[in-house]
Design brief:
There is one protein chain. With 284 residues, the chain is α+β, with helices and mostly antiparallel strands. 29% of the residues lie in helices and 23% in strands. It has a single domain, classed as Creatinase/methionine aminopeptidase superfamily (Creatine Amidinohydrolase, Alpha-Beta Complex), CATH 3.90.230. The strands form 5 sheets. Strands 1, 2, 4 and 5 form a 4-stranded antiparallel sheet that branches. Strand 7 and strand 8 form a beta hairpin. The longest helix is centred in the first third of the chain and has 24 residues. It is globular and about 65 Å long. The model has no long low-confidence stretch (mean pLDDT 96). One of its GO terms (molecular function) is metal ion binding. One of its GO terms (biological process) is proteolysis.
Length: 284
């Protein structure tokens, strides 16, 4: 018999939340563990991490320009984060050597900042920043267009942001992770864009990566039940061509992910808190 994930606390009164979660678990749906439901203290800590993470990306936005290297972006992120009492979560995470991910054009995600990667007119770049503050994590990314780019790249960046917003609207209390992915996939399909399937959003807050996996494609009513108190990211990676990707064989760290056809890719990301009314954005 499958072990239940949602355990009642002995002696504690059964709440409406308990009843709703157990209803879906008894129907065979995947539900969170209690540990994924953040306490008010944890939520406040994650919110503070989110404010710093947003401020870091704002600092990048003030300084990013044609002719700068992605290594300069890394320095901005490290200096601003540490000056304000935080820690860049990517630094030395499973061998990642820098403080931020900088993914240019066909690099889908996990681009490593380098002195030789110089931003040029027309580039699109994703800057993905995760901040630890007082033991709590917040995660977000933004797209930047360097100077003027092509109409095709502009549309890709815009549609990727729309995918995030549509996914956010689909995230409702006591609905399912698959509802998010289904809504995103439908929107991307209108433009014949590929939604990357090898990477996904994730729970976050008490650790860099927690349950659930938040896929950006799929069927409604599948995946984990979304319950108030859960904190997670939505971060669709939208490719101009195929959804398939590969890891750069020349990357000594094994991190950089590139679109298989080497066409441009775009991504936006926020950290969200699920509430009884819907999601609250904790990062911008």
């Amino acid at each position: 018999m499958k072990r239940k994930r949602w355990h009642l606390v002995q002696g504690q009164e059964i709440t409406e939340l308990d009843r709703r979660v157990m209803y879906w678990e008894n129907k065979g749906k995947e539900v969170p563990t209690r540990e994924l439901i953040k306490t008010p203290e944890q939520i406040e800590g994650i919110k503070q991490a989110g404010k710093l993470n947003t401020a870091v990306l704002d600092e990048v936005a003030r300084n990013i320009r044609e002719g700068m290297s992605t290594l300069e972006i890394d320095k901005i992120v490290y200096d601003y984060t540490t000056l304000h009492g935080g820690t860049p979560a990517p630094l030395n995470y499973e061998g990642f050597p820098k403080s931020v991910c900088t993914s240019i054009n066909e690099v889908v995600c996990h681009g490593i900042p380098k002195e030789e990667d110089i931003l040029q007119e027309g580039d699109i770049i994703n800057v993905d920043c995760t901040t630890i503050l007082n033991g709590y994590f917040a995660d977000a990314s933004r797209m930047f267009i360097i100077g003027e780019t092509t109409p095709e790249k502009e549309q890709l960046v815009r549609v990727a942001k729309e995918c995030l917003e549509i996914g956010m609207e689909a995230a409702k209390p006591y609905c399912f992770v698959g509802d998010i992915g289904n809504a995103i996939q439908k929107h991307a399909k209108k433009y014949n864009y590929g939604i990357v399937r090898d990477l996904c959003g994730h729970g976050v807050g008490n650790a860099f990566h927690e349950e659930p996996d938040v896929m950006h494609y799929g069927r409604k009513g599948t995946g984990m039940l979304l319950v108030p108190g859960m904190v997670f990211t939505i971060e669709p990676m939208v490719n101009m061509g195929t959804w398939r990707v590969f890891t750069d064989a020349e990357d000594p760290y094994g991190w950089e992910v590139i679109s298989e056809d080497e066409m441009p890719s775009a991504q936006w990301e926020h950290t969200f808190l699920m509430t009884e009314e819907g999601v609250e954005i904790l990062t911008y």
